[in-house]
Structures are given as C-alpha cells and as structure tokens.
Amino acid sequence: MLKGIDEAYQNKIQVGSYKYKGVTSSGIKIEMYLNTDGSIATAYPLYKK
Known about the structure:
GO terms for molecular function: endonuclease activity. The protein is of the alpha+beta class.
C-alpha cells in the first residue's frame, strides 16, 4: 500500500486547502491530506459503491 500512496503522491492534484487526490499505477484513486511541509498527514483509497 505504501508504494501505491507514493505513486499517487507523485501525480497528485490539489482539491482543497491541504487535500489532494492521486492515482496509483493500477488505477486506484487515493485521497490524501498533506502537512504544511508537504509531507503526507493521512492517505486512504477511494471506493465507488
């Protein structure tokens, strides 16, 4: 999972003040919040129902 989060971080787009979204190489969408220094505070996969 850490590799996937790193992949998503590399192609992230900003969608809020500290909120970003990115996609792994296998197509899983990851939402993440970054700290002010750019490090990842939290990240989780997004699932469609």
